[in-house]
Amino acid sequence: MANIVLAAEEAAPHGAHEPGATQTSVEHHGGGEFPPFQTENFVPQLVWLALTFGLLYILMSRIALPRIGSILHDRESRIESDLFASRELQAKAQEAAAAHDETLRVTKAQAQDIGRAAQQQSASETASRRASEEAAFAEKVAAAEAQILAAKSEALSNVEAIATEAAGAILEKLTGARVAAETLQGEFRNIKAS
Fold first, then answer.
1. DSSP single-letter state for residue 44
2. Cα 20 to chain centroid, rounded
3. How far is CA 53 from the centre of its chain?
4. 41-72: per-residue pLDDT in tens?
5. How many whole angstroms separate alpha carbon 74 and alpha carbon 133?
6. 178-182: long-range contacts (C-beta < 8 A, 24 or more apart)?
7. Engineering a disulfide at 164: which of 5, 20, 136, 184 sits with its beta carbon 3.0 to 4.6 angstroms away?
8. How far is it, in rounded angstroms, from Cα 52 to Cα 61?
9. Residue bearing the bigger pLDDT, 184 or 137
10. Could you please report the per-residue DSSP string of 145-178?
């Protein structure tokens, strides 16, 4: 910074100012007022001002503003066409979504129908198998019951014979008299019937 101050002091005219002193006056070369503020220059300045703004107005109105207007018009028409296209695409998307939902609904209904049919078929197959198994079981039970009844009746017939012999032997021991086997069998049948 000291170099700049020294360079400024060397460039100043000799005796123009002293080091450390401030300068309060400005020298005018040629004297007078600042040219734009001189009254004799007002008319040419106003003419140039009018010419400049007139030329600027013509350039703006003939070249720049029409270009800006066309750009704005193009932008507005592009925005409108994009909005129209987006509305069309949105409508198509909504139609596609509705068709998709309808397809899903139909497919779901078909799947439910298939499931119900499979369930009914399975139930009918199970019922027919169960009925055939129950019929086979009933036949086996009936055959077993018949065998049991035959064995029971055979056992009962043997029991009657054994009981009549035992009763005859007991009566003979107790009374000393012998009772006929047919009489004892008749009594057993009477007891069984009642």
1. H
2. 85
3. 66
4. 888 889 999 999 999 999 999 999 999 999 99
5. 86
6. none
7. 184
8. 14
9. 137
10. HHHHHHHHHHHHHHHHHHHHHHHHHHHHHHHS--
- What's the count of helices (H) and strands (E) in the chain, helices before strands? 4, 0
Identity of the highest mean pLDDT range in 15-19, 53-57, 178-182: 53-57
Q: What is the pTM of this model?
A: 0.38
Output the six-digit token pair for 59. 């350039």
Q: Please list, in sequence order, all residues whose beta carbon lies within 8 angstroms of the beta carbon of residue 35, skipping any fewer than 6 positions away.
A: 41
What is the SS3 assignment for 33?
coil
Torsion over CA: 160, 162, 166, 172 (sign): positive
What digits encode the pLDDT tens for the residues 70-99? 999 999 999 999 999 999 999 999 999 999
Angle at CA 36, nearest 5°, toward 35 and 37? 90
Enter the DSSP assignment of 37: G
Return the structure tokens found at 33. 């007022």
Helix (H, G, I), strand (E, B) or coil at 164: helix
10 Å Cβ neighbour count for 163? 15
CA-to-CA separations, 166 to 159, 160, 178, 184, 194, in angstroms, rounded? 10, 10, 12, 10, 21
In angstroms, the first-to-last Cα distance of the chain is: 150
> How long a stretch of residues is the chain?
194
Per-residue pLDDT reduced to its tens digit, 110-122 = 999 999 999 999 9
